[in-house]
């Protein structure tokens, strides 16, 4: 009997599911199908898909669409805007998983650069839900200084450099309420892969050096990193191959197999791998896991990643051709088998808002 692993309620708190004005890139049905194929119970969607989640009306538009389409459970982030939209917080707070602030420029152009505006968002955001930040290098240091003053639970997304790891390690040693995530593409690819992969290796934060990647692996092992998050950000191949290629790569279906491959190769303990995709995100986002919500994995099953086999609408992967070990066999949510062997078994709309 091949070795089977059962993982309780996996959560990816950093995805871009598209839908609405960007439904040509994927929608809440196709991309949550990718989530359950990747083994996930729940995914938390970022606010940069137009109409941007900057006010209650835009949040309602998104809530309506995702409610009808999602096959896994979910949460939505509200967006901290340069337009000083903190007056919206009282009317959106109960419906969202947290707040997202873009402190470096990326897809959607929702950049908040002004330190006074960043601080005012922190002052207004209630402390019971996560304040998530895109904050690279010196911007990461700037956000940690704000947390030193405001002490609100803060998650630093997609850490990609040795310097960011140092900043976060020190913030944690100082007792600040800071957690962080890293993405598989920063763990498995470096700037040297851009020559072969071209725009398929373009994402924000961009791929970094081998020394940076080594620092990420050390931080995974020593517990500085809390979560491995996919930053699943599908764009069509045609868009990627256009004259103006957008940043972002799909990742929901490759994150767990890659991590289990690292376990197989002795680069990571199985306990750490499970903590990074399950225990830690559930703890940090204060989730109660419903009964019979888990993923079954065939630990020894080896296969080649092929974009054409993926559920994601865009059907490509920056990890094309890579051999991984560890295949998702079944995903169960609230007592229903939602995914088995390449097939999604529940209807659109089965997924629930974990923050309703
Ligand atoms: O590569 C990225 N793509 N990074 C982001 O921060 C946004 C994302 C997207 O939405 O395409
Ligand atoms: Zn992202």
Q: CATH fold name, please?
A: TIM Barrel
Order of helices and strands: EEHEHEHEHEHEHEHHHEHHHEEEE
Distance between the termini: 42 Å
Structural category is alpha/beta
Low-confidence stretches: none
Determine the strand fraction and express it as a percent band: 15-25%
Tally of DSSP helical segments: 12
How helix-rich are the residues, as a percent range? 25-40%
* DSSP summary, beta strand count: 13
Number of discrete domains: 1
Q: Identify the CATH architecture.
A: Alpha-Beta Barrel
- Side by side, the strands of the main sheet go 2-3-4-5-6-7-8-9
Quick summary:
By secondary structure, this protein is α/β, with parallel strands linked by helices. It contains 12 helices and 13 strands.
Task: Report what the structure shows.
Helix 3 links the parallel strand 4 and strand 5 (98-102). The mean pLDDT is 98. By secondary structure, the chain is of the alpha/beta class. The chain is globular, with a radius of gyration of 19 Å. It is built from 12 helices and 13 strands. It is 32% helix and 21% strand. It has helices at residues 28-37, 56-69, 89-92, 115-124, 138-150, 162-173, 184-188, 194-197, 210-222, 237-240, 255-264, 270-284; strands at 4-8, 10-15, 40-45, 73-79, 98-102, 130-134, 154-156, 178-182, 227-228, 294-304, 323-333, 336-340, 343-344. Strands 2-3-4-5-6-7-8-9 form an 8-stranded parallel beta sheet. A 5-stranded antiparallel beta sheet has the order 1-10-11-12-13, with helices on one face. It has a single domain (4-344), classed as Metal-dependent hydrolases (TIM Barrel, Alpha-Beta Barrel). (4S)-2,6-dioxohexahydropyrimidine-4-carboxylic acid (DOR) is lined by residues 16, 48, 106-107, 134, 203-204, 233, 246-248.
């Amino acid at each position: 009997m091949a070795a089977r692993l059962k993982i309780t309620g996996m959560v990816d708190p950093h995805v871009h599911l598209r839908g609405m004005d960007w439904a040509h890139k994927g929608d809440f049905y196709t991309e949550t199908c990718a989530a359950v194929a990747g083994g996930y119970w729940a995914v938390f969607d970022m606010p940069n898909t137009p109409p941007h989640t900057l006010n209650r009306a835009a949040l309602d538009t998104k809530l309506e669409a995702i409610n009808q389409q999602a096959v896994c459970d979910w949460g939505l982030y509200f967006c901290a805007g340069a337009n000083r939209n903190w007056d919206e917080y009282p009317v959106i707070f109960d419906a969202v998983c947290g707040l997202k602030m873009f402190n470096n420029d990326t897809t959607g152009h929702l950049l908040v650069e002004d330190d006074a505006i960043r601080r005012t968002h922190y002052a207004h955001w209630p402390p019971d839900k996560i304040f998530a930040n895109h904050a690279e290098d010196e911007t990461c240091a700037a956000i940690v200084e704000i947390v030193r003053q405001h002490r609100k639970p803060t998650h630093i997304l997609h850490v990609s450099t040795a310097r960011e790891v140092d900043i976060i390690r020190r913030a944690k040693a100082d007792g600040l309420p800071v957690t962080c995530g890293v993405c598989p593409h920063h763990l498995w690819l470096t700037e040297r892969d851009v020559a072969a992969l071209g725009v398929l290796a373009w994402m924000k934060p961009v791929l970094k050096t081998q020394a940076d990647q080594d620092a990420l692996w050390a931080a995974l092992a020593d517990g500085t990193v809390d979560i491995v998050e996919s930053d699943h950000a599908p764009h069509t191949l045609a868009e990627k191959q256009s004259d103006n290629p957008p940043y972002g790569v799909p990742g929901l279906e490759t994150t767990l197999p890659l991590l289990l491959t690292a376990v197989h190769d002795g680069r990571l303990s199985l306990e750490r791998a499970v903590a990074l995709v399950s225990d830690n995100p559930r703890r940090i986002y204060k989730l109660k896991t419903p009964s019979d919500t888990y993923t079954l994995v065939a630990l020894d099953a080896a296969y080649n990643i092929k974009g054409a086999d993926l559920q994601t609408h865009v059907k490509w992967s920056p990890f094309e051709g890579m051999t991984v070990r560890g295949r998702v066999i079944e995903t169960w949510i609230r007592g229903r088998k939602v995914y088995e062997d390449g097939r999604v078994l529940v209807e659109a709309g089965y997924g629930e808002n974990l923050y309703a």
